[in-house]
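Q: Sequence in, structure out?
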Amino acid sequence: MNGINGAQTARTPGRGHGGGRTVVIGGGIAGLAAAHRLAAAGARVTLLEATTRLGGKLEAGELAGAPVDLGAESMLARRPEAVELARAVGLADRLQPPATATAAVWTRDALRPMPKGHVMGVPGDAAALTGLLSAEGTARIAAEGDLPPLDPDRIGDDVAVGELVAARLGREVVDRLVEPLLGGVYAGDAYRISLRAAVPKLYEEARRHPSLTEAVRAVQRAAAGASGPAFMGIAGGIGALPGAVADAVTALGGEIRLDAPVHELTRTASGWRVRSGAELIEAESVVLAAPAWSASELLARLAPAASAELAAVEYASMALVTLAYRRADAEAVLPAGSGFLVPPVDGRTIKASTFSSRKWRWTDEGSDDLFLLRTSVGRHAEEEHLHREDAELVAASRTDLAAATGLAAAPVASVVTRWTGGLPQYPVGHLRRVERIRAAVAGLPGLAVCGAAYDGVGIPACVASAHRAADEILAAATLAYGTAGGGRE
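A: Exactly. Output:
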């Protein structure tokens, strides 16, 4: 039975869980991962998704008969949570590393090779960015040794990535490499994004070393022993993961309901009451895996402090333009590699392009004569492009692609996918905000929160956030069950 289309009768909860229902609010990858963790532990789970589709920003689609990802297209493989979840739900044989990871930066009217030897664009030495930066820019990096040593007190509890890098290595490093790399993850502004939240290992090393380049080299040394690909995809698209997790949840006895928005949460003597439409659902516990603005509304009366913090979380919107070309037209002109990034300082419409048919082997399924690629448009506080019609975004993408690569042929098909409020922003102080939210929520027994607004926007971070929330619910239920049952095993 397909878990996204219906529900099965919930199985009897395993020992160690109190036996009451847990409602998961939100059917993105975090909500699905939480439901899977709970159901696998024997909990009775009902997942409620407000829309008619599961997966959040993971969405599989089709263009000109070929499978495509219309949302996230890869997951970090050196962090285990997402890959392990994919394996647990039967996708092990479909996991694929990129066929190529070689990329470029389109800046100063040329495609320049993506440099090596950096951490999220922050170089360990000036030579790493030779060719990408001006002579003055590389000289500025080399001159860091002339600056006073890094002051842990100045870095303090947090600092903006762009602020620290510009102060130590110059603005050109930020504008030409850090910005496009961070923009690819957060669609945000490097001069606002938290170093501690976005690049935590570099934050820690920067507090221990006298220079930023030394801190980068320390991060690189620690990662030198890592094996295997840095990223992983799924044959057919990352968008296949939500459906596989949903099927696993229903196979474990869980229930999944689509088109089921939650309008109200209420504390009761025995736990929680969840109002979805005209239905009132009694629950022992709740996992709130909704976006920050939705979670804020549901917690307004129950936890005003948490609600206010969640309401302050900003989001960036973006659009993906997916294009299908005749393979001969594309291969004749496109450079080698998986695509390119575009620094905002260059004033282009697109911020990146991925050559999907180069990056992922599975895109050839049903598309031997097609070449698939996509562009992304939109950054935080610079989203005016998103108000343009689909045809305008396609035309703007084609203009930039032609200027960057010479690809002037007309695509045989295109689709524009808009992700309004798609990416939460992690400004300086974000992790402290998350601590305050969780502290306020801790005063409501049987409630846990998870999702992209908390511990990271990548798929593994969302899954880890979900597992943390599910484990909190399971631990509380086990404690309550043991107390009520006289401590029996």
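The chain has three domains: 21-58+79-91+238-313+427-484, 114-224, 315-424.
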